[in-house]
Design brief:
Layout lengths: L1 H4 L5 H11 L12 H11 L10 E3 L12 E4 L2 E4 L6 H6 L6 H6 L5 H18 L20 E2 L25 E7 L4 E7 L5 E4 L3 E4 L5 H13 L6 E8 L2 E8 L5 E6 L4 H7 L12 E5 L2 E5 L1 H7 L13 E4 L5 E6 L5 E4 L6 H7 L12 E6 L5 E6 L1 H4 L13 E4 L2 H4 L2 E6 L8 E5 L2 E9 L6 H7 L12 E5 L7 E5 L1 H6 L14 E4 L5 E6 L5 E4 L6 H7 L13 E3 L5 E3 L11 E4 L6 H27 L5
Parallel strand pairs: 10-14, 15-19, 20-25, 26-30
Antiparallel strand pairs: 1-3, 2-3, 4-6, 5-6, 5-9, 7-8, 10-11, 12-13, 12-14, 15-16, 17-18, 17-19, 20-22, 21-22, 23-24, 23-25, 26-27, 28-29, 28-30
């Protein structure tokens, strides 16, 4: 309090009193030394401004509060510093906090000054210097090769693929150059000018056009090493250049499209709608400054060969010719289909491109079908294992068709058909409202009928076990039909019915019939519901009875086992039996008589109509 009541002291005395009492009463510029000024500035967190040194009248000046940090004389008050808080400067509001007063205590002042001094020396290394203002966006640069500040090349939230180290720089690329020293980092954004140079302060103009991003970074680092004692240079592309590319030929939308330098050939073609169905993917012609090259886009799409998908360049011209000769791959290959013959015309190269043969393939049994000189197709066997082992190969020709059979074709198989329960892999059909299946199984050595029935899921509840049969093909002659009574095999355990199966056998199990069929000279031929108490004559009556031309005495019954009996001698009928009513044999003169009677009736009718409409004939 004595300091504020006393007359204004000399600057040296004020500094001594500040250091002694912990009270600031004068500007830092009037401290004894530069070190003292730095300490005073660090304590208050403010820098002296000459605009705040004016003396202005304050009639309500309070001299009883040391927290005001003011030196007062009479009716005038003089600010000691330009404080950070403007309201405190204008209204003499207290800004010192209890923590600040504790730090300014005479017992803690020396320690505080030492800590502040060490902190001020270390602050630049840790980024604790003067607060950096937030960067404000500036308009896009208008002059190539000049330093630019914080452009916003993409919209808010845009996500783009950033160029990698192999990206080749050219005029129009916007780069960010970062030069990191020991204590500070300098960043600048530049544009590659039409000459391929960038201007990086303070390094000057550096030629980077035609270099990859990695090569350009090394060149800038070499220039920076001659200017700075220590410099770590980082170069990044923040906005790739754009230019126009011309497309022609078999593309959906031929013409000129604007593309980024990050785009590759297949992306440029997709921007134009893609290649038409008539276009070639294996002979795309690309014209650049270095010349004309032929690109195999199929090698990129299926094999990932980036050499066949070059980056877009300024002035590039792309021409897609018509599709060339093709071959067909079928069977056990990973990507069956029709493919255009490649530049080498090699079967081995084509199979490698499509992923080769599938795992369950019989490559040694492949078949190659080729159109001969006379226009006829010829099929030859090809052992792909030997034919495709380098240096051996097969040259492809237009129209070739390669079939690679799966191993299952060479495996012995048997088939089941009819009233089996089946498995999830079974092909299901419906017969007379009841489900039946068709399914093939691999035949293991020693498999018998019982084994096959179990693999087919067992017999259905409506299966006619007694009428199962095995159809077996013969090398010469018709197929054999071997009856198998599954009723005796499964129920009665008759092992004689469990015959040994052979490759190609077909086991058929019919469904139980619940109808008796009446055919021939009856009024309503067809199926009649089976009733065990009915005789063949009664089934004929249920079918409407015999017609006038029926020969009732010759009716016969055929059972499902193929045996036939006369109606009088037939055993009791079973489901599936067929009752046949033959026609009476008619002599030739009886037919002529019937025809004459019909003609006479027609003539009589015509004569009657004539008399009615014209009257009798008068002579």
């Amino acid at each position: 309090m004595e300091l504020f009541a006393a007359p204004r002291a000399a600057p040296e005395e004020l500094v001594e009193k500040v250091l002694e009492r912990g009270v600031v009463g004068e500007r830092p510029e009037k401290a004894k030394s530069a070190a003292a000024r730095r300490m005073l500035r660090a304590l208050l967190g403010a820098i002296w401004s000459p605009d705040d040194s004016r003396v202005r009248p304050r009639p309500d000046c309070r001299t009883d509060a040391i927290d005001l940090m003011l030196e007062c004389q009479g009716n005038y008050c003089n600010h000691a510093f330009s404080l950070t808080l403007a309201s405190a400067k204008r209204d003499n509001e207290p800004i010192a906090t209890p923590l600040f007063r504790a730090l300014m205590n005479r017992h803690n002042l020396s320690r505080t000054l030492c800590v502040v001094l060490v902190a001020s020396l270390l602050a630049p290394s840790f980024g604790f210097g003067q607060p950096q203002p937030a960067p404000s966006p500036s308009p896009a640069p208008s002059t190539l090769g000049r330093s630019v500040t914080t452009p916003t090349p993409f919209g808010s939230g845009a996500r783009i693929a950033m160029p990698g180290p192999e990206y080749r720089l050219g005029p129009g690329d916007v780069l960010e150059v970062q030069i990191a020293g020991r204590l500070d980092v300098e960043r600048s954004q530049v544009i590659v000018d039409p000459t391929g140079a960038i201007s990086v302060p303070p390094l000057g103009s550096i030629l980077v056009g035609g270099l990859t991003l990695l090569e350009a970074q090394r060149r800038v680092a070499a220039r920076a090493s001659g200017v700075f004692r220590f410099a770590n240079v980082t170069l990044a592309v923040i906005l790739p250049r754009t230019f126009e590319v011309t497309l022609s030929g078999e593309v959906e939308r031929p013409g000129t499209v604007a593309v980024s330098a990050l785009r590759r050939l297949h992306e440029v073609i997709l921007d134009a709608g893609g290649i038409t169905t008539r276009g070639s993917m294996r002979r795309v012609q690309v014209t650049r400054k270095s010349g004309v090259t032929e690109v195999d886009l199929l090698s990129f799409e299926l094999g990932g060969d980036l050499t066949q998908n070059p980056s877009a360049e300024e002035g590039m011209r792309i021409h897609v010719p018509s599709r060339g000769p093709s071959v067909t791959l079928t069977g056990a290959v990973r990507r069956p289909g029709e493919y255009e013959i490649g530049p080498t015309g090699s079967l081995r190269a084509l199979l490698e491109l499509v992923g080769g043969l599938s795992q369950a393939s019989a490559g040694s049994e492949a078949r190659l079908t080729r159109v001969g000189a006379d226009g006829r197709k010829e099929t030859v066997a090809v052992d792909l294992g030997a034919a495709l082992t380098p240096p051996a190969d097969v040259a492809l020709e237009a129209g070739d068709a390669l079939f690679v059979p799966p191993l299952s074709v060479l495996q012995d198989v048997v088939e089941v058909r009819g009233a089996f329960n089946g498995t999830p892999e079974s092909t299901k059909t419906t017969v007379a409202g009841k489900a039946t299946i068709v399914q093939r199984f691999e035949l293991a050595q020693g498999d018998r009928v019982r084994d096959l029935v179990l693999r087919a899921g067992g017999t259905a509840a409506y299966a006619d076990l007694r009428l199962a049969l095995v159809e077996r093909g013969a090398v010469l002659g018709p197929r054999q039909r071997i009856p198998v009574d599954l009723q005796r095999l499964i129920v009665e355990k008759d092992e004689a019915q469990d015959i040994l199966l052979q490759n190609g056998d077909v086991l058929t199990l019919p469904i139980v019939e619940d109808k008796v069929y009446v055919i021939g000279e009856v009024k309503a031929p067809g199926a009649v519901d089976f009733r065990p108490d009915l005789t063949p004559r009664e089934y004929v009556a249920l079918a409407g009875g015999p017609t006038n031309r029926a020969k009732v005495k010759s009716v016969f019954v055929t059972f499902r086992d193929g045996k036939s009996y006369a109606m009088a001698d037939a055993p009791p009928l079973e489901p599936g039996a067929v009752v046949s009513v033959p026609e009476v044999a008619v002599k030739w003169w009886q037919d002529y008589l019937a025809i004459a009677q019909a003609v006479a009736s027609i003539m009589l009718g015509v004569t009657g109509l004539f008399v009615i409409f014209n009257g009798p004939v008068v002579r």
